[in-house]
Amino acid sequence: MPENKLPEEQREQKYACGGCGVGVVDFTDDYPTFKPEMKETHTILIPDMLPYHFEIIKYVLAKEGYKIEVLHNDSRAVIDEGLKHVHNDTCFPALCVIGQYIDALKSGKYDVDHTAVLISQTGGGCRASNYLPLIRKALKAEFPQVPVLSINFSGLEKGNGIPMTVPLLLKAAYAIFYGDNIMTLYNQTLPYEKEKGAAEKARQACLQMVYDAFDGKGYKKYKQLTRRMIETFKAVPRTGEKKVKVGIVGEIYVKYSPLGNSHLEDFLHEEDCETVIPGLMDFVLYCVVNTINDRKLYKRNSVLLTFVYKIVYKFLYHMQREIIKIFREDGTFEPLHDFEHLRRCADKVINQGVKMGEGWLIPAEMAALAETGTDNIVCAQPFGCLPNHIAGKGVVRTLKNMYKDENIVPVDYDPSATRVNQENRIKLMLATARENLKREMQAEGEKAEKEDKR
Ligand code: SF4
What we know:
By secondary structure, this protein is α/β, with parallel strands linked by helices.
């Protein structure tokens, strides 16, 4: 009899802890699957990872009939639940996600018999591929009836997730582009708004614009929508001052999630900085390119799969270029990075075969930020994340040699790190950034004076 088909009592004995004798949950146990009819009855919880994108993705999925809720619980209890249910050596993002699920399920807000949780995975070669069993194991201990759905494109699991049809994938791609647009316009407006709350109003107006587009058939009119978004943010009166610009790069979860990065974006806004956050689409393109490179460099993947990914890449990159063109034509806001430029930046620092975790994308983003006027960078890394420490912290010296003004601070995020310590490290980096900005403005002033005299 296969091990995972053993009766419950025997499994408990087999996996009983040698010390206390208490049954240990085995991740090869049977676990509840999400059946298609559960779409009608279950609320699906998703972790708070992408504040700018998940609201749009939630709307798209709601239109497909799914009841989705994005979790925003972020008290210390979330981290403590994570620590209770996974080993403290586990990746910090897994700990946060699991803690957020368990804390929410314990809150009494949800009918646990009609709740499921959803995780998206890229299925990389690092521990990212283990999140599914980790979550299942943690939930089995307290909420064995809660199914875990996965969205992944690497065949980690089939038949237990939201079926990703081509139309749904298309909508998700558009949703990511729109989320990126809103994020970049909002971040370039908020620090300079003359009237408090005006940038937020513009953001809400743009979100409504996107929802309306998904309600009708206009969601594919990305050029028109991008222009309307730019106009909406342009209408916000801005001060025109110069402020310190700070880029945020790093492991995908701690880069975007306020829970994972101790509300880094809010902190930088409180410090009167403009945040520059690379788009989520760059990460998607990074994953697509890695699949293509897998064939070229490692002789993995079939010719057909590589061909399909090449078409996907062409399609997404074309859209990205068109959006960048619209931003440039208007000239008010800085566009997001061009992905081919990112690849060229990566080639200066590291080989594109380094693809564990966020791999070559991190140095590429740091180099591209330096080349586009953002020298100050927070490199957010989960403590103990080997791939990101190598491709993040590990390349800082090389980057500093290449870009003399680059001012990078790698910051570790883990359950025992205090927010004060993290913020103090960032404040040191900001002190240098403010000095550099002062010098730059002085130089500009002197140059303007000289030109006036001529
Ligand atoms: S990238 Fe790092 S933090 Fe993320 S799963 Fe891999 S090892 Fe863990």
